[in-house]
């Protein structure tokens, strides 16, 4: 596989006495989807916040294209091509799709001494970029509030891709979506990958992760319990690892007992 | 081929629903209603003569000068309750240096604009830094500025009113910017062709357009351009719509809001400059309740109280309704006591209508 675009090398992060990450290594290459799986509190959010420059690692280092790097701020991280799409998506519901697309990076057009927002370019670009990713907008000037959850997710992703993201970090992008909406987002992830973007996909949902993922890393209580290529593992094994196979079997037996007792 | 036709239909429908979800729609309809109402009830009282029109436009212009930047501030999600007191304070800042310290009027004017701009920046800084609601912060400014105005004026002049500005302003280079009239030639010509009535002595019934009306229109156009065509406008909508998202995308939310507080304070100073130079005096009670009138005009104009949505053109309609109703009630001879009842009711209806339009805009898929 190609050289990783960004890597974490034996990173640890502590919050007082809480060990949020311990000796975790993680990387993503251009054109691959690397899924990060783990239970609640496993440290997934902490890991991506470290990757996106919100936290500095207490131990270990971050490398971008092989070079050890310290991010000064989230904006600094964005400038080095690593874009994070958070759960809140950073969208303004009452503003139009096109204006959201370019918020903070407005295209300007000069008319003599004054330069003004190039609405026509913004509308056309937002429309085309989303169309290229399979989202047909009714109107680039419709408010984002009128989009469905999946479409909003796609807008946030398309925006990051348009502004030159080399690595996309998606924190549970499908968790709040129905089956159809989730499949739209999953398609978009595959499209981004086809464009040579490295995607870090955080999810609770093994089914979603397995259809798009190339590699899977499991986190448990702040530790990395293994990284598997898709060829090394099938969906059920992954499900077992993720849910802690034994726990599921126990749960099944327990539920069986409950059912028997209540029917007796 | 078939696909093209369908696409065309989708587009034209969306254009109509886009028009119907414009924030100023309600205010435009309200303006038409109010005009029709007074055309019927006050059609022959002179309300719609050239003189009557100038009268209500002047009332509207004064309020509209405040309402345009207040609309921008409210779209950014903040209130400025200090603009009314700022008007009184700015008037004193013009009159006292000129009358008591011998400053030329132009210097007092610049002084007043500078000090008010500075206080606006302090308002903005206080809101942004403390994270307190601007409603509370500027309520404090409302009282502090009024107190300061009274204290300073009485301390320096011994009274609450400072007059005698007219004589000093007569030959001042900035005088005609804020008082007097423009387009006198045009009005004379309109009078010659019979579009503007003549007085008994043969002169036109009005001698020109008061300069405040020009300020109102120019300010509304500038604010509209800022809102819809500038980068700053995008930031205003974003700051009021979802400040956190805006910040995450690198929008300077704090700077945007502070700039808007400076703009509302400067608008109050402009209001005061016009008032002081037209009347020739300043009074400590000037501008009382203008903050609320401006908010009413803005809300009637379709701006949401919660921010993120609205327009400056709408605020212009709001101010126009205000002026027409105030003068219309006067011309029809209805007791003017009823004016406030009417405007208050208008605002409540506007708020209900606005949230309906907003919901409609968010539903139109
Ligand atoms: N800012 C913080 N201060 C103190 N402790 C923290 C902080 N952030 C996270 N933690 C702790 O670190 C551990 C890992 O949390 P993290 O949010 O990374 O988990 P997660 O895998 O994202 O879980 P979830 O699936 O619930 O989102 C948890 O025990 C959490 O309580
Ligand atoms: Mg998390």
From TrEMBL, chain A:
Name of one Pfam family that matches: ABC_tran
InterPro entries according to UniProt: AAA+_ATPase (IPR003593), ABC_carbohydrate_import_ATPase (IPR050107), ABC_transporter-like_ATP-bd (IPR003439), ABC_transporter-like_CS (IPR017871), P-loop_NTPase (IPR027417)
All residue ranges annotated as the ABC transporter domain in the record: 6-246
Transmembrane annotation, as ranges: none
Keyword list, A-Z: ATP-binding, Nucleotide-binding
CDD domains: ABC_Carb_Monos_I (cd03216)
GO terms for MF: ATP binding; ATP hydrolysis activity
Stretches assigned to coiled coil: none
Family: Belongs to the ABC transporter superfamily.
Full protein name: ABC transporter ATP-binding protein
Annotated organism of origin: Mesorhizobium kowhaii
Classification lineage: Bacteria, Pseudomonadati, Pseudomonadota, Alphaproteobacteria, Hyphomicrobiales
TrEMBL record, chain B:
Keywords: Cell inner membrane, Cell membrane, Membrane, Sugar transport, Transmembrane, Transmembrane helix, Transport
Principal cellular location given in the protein's record: membrane
GO cellular component, one term: plasma membrane
Transferase in keyword set: no
Bilayer disposition of the protein: Multi-pass membrane protein
Key word DNA-binding present: no
Transmembrane segments: 25-47, 53-76, 83-103, 109-128, 135-156, 176-196, 208-227, 258-282, 294-326, 338-357
Gene Ontology terms for molecular function: transmembrane transporter activity
Coiled-coil ranges per UniProt: none
Protein origin, superkingdom: Bacteria
Cited InterPro entries: ABC_transp_permease (IPR001851)
Localisation per UniProt entry: Cell membrane
Function, as annotated: Part of the binding-protein-dependent transport system for D-xylose. Probably responsible for the translocation of the substrate across the membrane.
Protein name: Xylose transport system permease protein XylH
Species in which this protein is naturally found: Mesorhizobium kowhaii
């Amino acid at each position: 596989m190609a050289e990783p675009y960004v890597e974490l090398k034996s990173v640890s992060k502590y919050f007082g006495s809480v060990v949020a990450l311990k000796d975790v290594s993680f990387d993503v290459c251009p054109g691959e989807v690397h899924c990060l799986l783990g239970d609640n509190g496993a440290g997934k959010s902490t890991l991506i916040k470290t990757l996106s420059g919100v936290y500095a690692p207490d131990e270990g280092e971050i490398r971008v294209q092989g070079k050890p790097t310290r991010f000064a701020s989230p904006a600094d991280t964005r400038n080095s091509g690593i874009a994070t799409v958070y759960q809140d998506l950073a969208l303004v519901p009452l503003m139009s799709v096109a204006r959201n697309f370019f918020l903070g990076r407005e295209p300007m057009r000069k008319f003599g001494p004054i330069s003004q927002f190039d609405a026509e370019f913004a509308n056309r670009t937002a429309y085309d970029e989303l169309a290229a990713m399979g989202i047909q907008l009714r109107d680039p000037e419709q408010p984002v509030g009128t989009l469905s959850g999946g479409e909003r997710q796609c807008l946030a992703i398309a925006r990051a891709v348009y502004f030159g993201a080399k690595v996309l970090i998606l924190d549970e992008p499908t968790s709040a979506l129905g089956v159809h909406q989730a499949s739209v987002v999953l398609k978009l992830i595959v499209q981004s990958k086809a464009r040579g973007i490295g995607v870090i996909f955080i999810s609770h949902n093994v089914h979603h992760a397995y259809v798009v993922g190339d590699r899977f890393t499991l986190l448990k209580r702040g530790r990395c319990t293994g990284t598997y290529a898709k060829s090394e593992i099938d969906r059920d094994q992954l499900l077992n690892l993720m849910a802690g196979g034994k726990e599921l079997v126990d749960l099944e037996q327990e539920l069986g007992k409950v059912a028997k007792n209540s029917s007796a | 081929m078939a696909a093209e036709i369908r696409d065309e239909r989708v587009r034209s429908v969306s254009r109509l629903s886009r028009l119907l979800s414009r924030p100023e729609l309600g205010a435009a309809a309200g303006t038409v209603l109010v005009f029709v109402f007074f055309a019927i009830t006050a059609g022959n009282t002179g309300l719609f003569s050239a003189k009557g029109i100038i009268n209500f436009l002047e009332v509207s212009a004064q309020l509209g000068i405040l309402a345009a930047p207040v609309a921008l501030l409210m779209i950014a999600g903040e209130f400025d309750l200090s603009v009314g007191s700022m008007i009184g304070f700015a008037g004193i800042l013009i009159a006292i240096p000129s009358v008591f310290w011998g400053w030329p009027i132009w210097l007092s004017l610049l002084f007043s604009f500078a000090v008010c701009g500075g206080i606006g920046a302090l308002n903005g800084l206080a809101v942004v830094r403390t994270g307190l609601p601007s409603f509370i912060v500027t309520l404090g400014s409302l009282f502090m500025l009024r107190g300061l105005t009274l204290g300073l004026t009485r301390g320096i002049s011994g009274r609450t009113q400072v007059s005698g500005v007219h004589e000093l302003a007569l030959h001042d280079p900035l005088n005609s910017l804020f008082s007097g009239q423009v387009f006198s030639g045009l009005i004379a010509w309109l009078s010659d062709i019979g579009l503007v009535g003549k007085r008994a002595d043969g002169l036109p019934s009005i001698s020109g357009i008061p300069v405040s009306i020009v300020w109102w229109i120019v300010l509304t156009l500038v604010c509209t351009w800022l809102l819809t065509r500038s980068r700053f406008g995008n930031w205003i909508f974003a700051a009021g719509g979802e400040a956190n998202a805006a910040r995450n995308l690198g929008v300077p939310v704090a700077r945007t809001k502070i700039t808007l507080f400076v703009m509302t304070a400067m608008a109050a100073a402009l209001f005061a400059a016009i008032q002081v130079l037209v009347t020739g005096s300043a009074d400590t009670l000037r501008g009382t309740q203008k903050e609320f009138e401006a908010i009413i005009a803005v809300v009637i104009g379709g701006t949401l109280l919660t921010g993120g949505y609205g327009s400056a053109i709408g605020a212009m309609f709001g101010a126009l309704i205000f002026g027409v109703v105030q003068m219309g009630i006067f011309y029809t001879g209805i007791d003017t006591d009823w004016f406030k009842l009417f405007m208050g009711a208008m605002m409540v209806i506007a708020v209900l209508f606005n949230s309906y339009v907003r919901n409609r805009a968010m539903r139109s898929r």
